[in-house]
Amino acid sequence: MVTKNYILRLRKVIAAALMIMMIAGISACSVGKNAESVAENGAGFDFMAIQKDDAIADLLPIEVRESGVIQVGSDTTYSPFDFISEDNKITGIDIDIAKAMSRVLGVEIVFNTSIFDQIIPSIGAKYNAGFSALFVTDERIKQVDFVSYMQTASVVTAQKGNPSAVDPKNLCGKKIAVQTNTTEFQDAEAIGEKCVASGRDNVTILANDSQAQVTNYVATGRADVMFTEKAVAGYAIKLSDDKLEMLGEYGDDNYLLGIALKKGDSLAVPLQKALNVLIQSGDMDKILDTWGITNGSVTESKVIKTSADFEAASGN
Prior knowledge:
By secondary structure, the protein is an alpha/beta fold. The protein has helices at 4-14, 54-57, 62-67, 93-105, 116-122, 138-141, 183-197, 211-219, 230-239, 268-281, 283-290, 307-313; strands at 28-30, 69-74, 77-78, 82-84, 90-91, 108-113, 129-135, 144-159, 175-179, 204-208, 225-229, 244-262, 303-304. The protein is built from twelve helices and 13 strands. Helix 4 packs antiparallel against helix 11.
């Protein structure tokens, strides 16, 4: 268990950006039908106003209806999507979306802390789903199905003032901090390969399982920049008292975020329908707005099983 004194020392380094730092003693958090009516971040979204949809609830697999629980794996070092609050609760964007979904479905959605790269391998065995700001990719579609819920972009973040004079479109020779086994990690590798192929210096990748540590690499100057999802960067900047800054997107691609499920799992359809209830009612936008995110929701949640599905959903 990380001690309070240790956390305070880390805050001096990055002005509270690491308050989410690896509180490993917390393993799960229920966010189901008994969820509080006030959002964990204090923004005051009224979850209790969301009503159960019996027709959608009846589509849940029989084992979920009997147990009343959907178990999900999540990397709880990834603020603001999934992280540990100061009062030792799992909180974040994904958790608030799950709270709203649980109201529609009438079952509890229980978050379990996992190392990021163990989430997908554990789906179908340890967890019903992976709910952790997972980017939908062609490679991942070979392993799991997805239910889309957000769209986003990956960005470059540096220390305030950009002391390494980084150009986000020209990163050759730079030290890039990324979370292990993420899309951003693969992007950093691909950029390095292009640098070498063009006769320029390779990038140096500093990878860690914890997004908090990745942020720390940049905040302390160990890395020139970090690659991460846009909302993650924005939240880290806010908590650092503006000691970090976003330099821009390093590529031209936007990404879909999805809930991951085992291939062919019938749970996908009720999750998709529950998300679409929230999207159509405007509740999804309201939830995202409490976290400072605009235009983040997809216009329609879709089940993604194939690359063709992915291509169609990407035009959402």
